[in-house]
Amino acid sequence: MKAKNKTRTKYERAQKRVAELRGFYNHLTVYILVNAALLILREKFTIILISKEALGNPEFLDWLNWNTYGTSIVWGIALCIHALRTFSGISFFGRKWEERQIRRFMEEEN
Description:
It contains four helices and no strands. It has helices at residues 2-49, 52-56, 58-87, 95-109.
């Protein structure tokens, strides 16, 4: 019976790990697609959405650049944190934290 439980536990850990990997790769795919669209279509969106006076304004262009590139940078930092959690032992509120919290709540109920 213990072997069956041990196998089930291994299987559940493997499932959780695969879900973590899938989550990261989904995040990476969305990041690449959205940021590629932002960078490629930036000029077309500005021409369609903004008047020509605004496009000639250097302050507006600086604002637009900061928003376009800022989105990529901030999101990229978040993606790097996600990669660290997924592929390394570094974790913020990771598996070990979850296990400690589960044990704590189970002990409180007893």
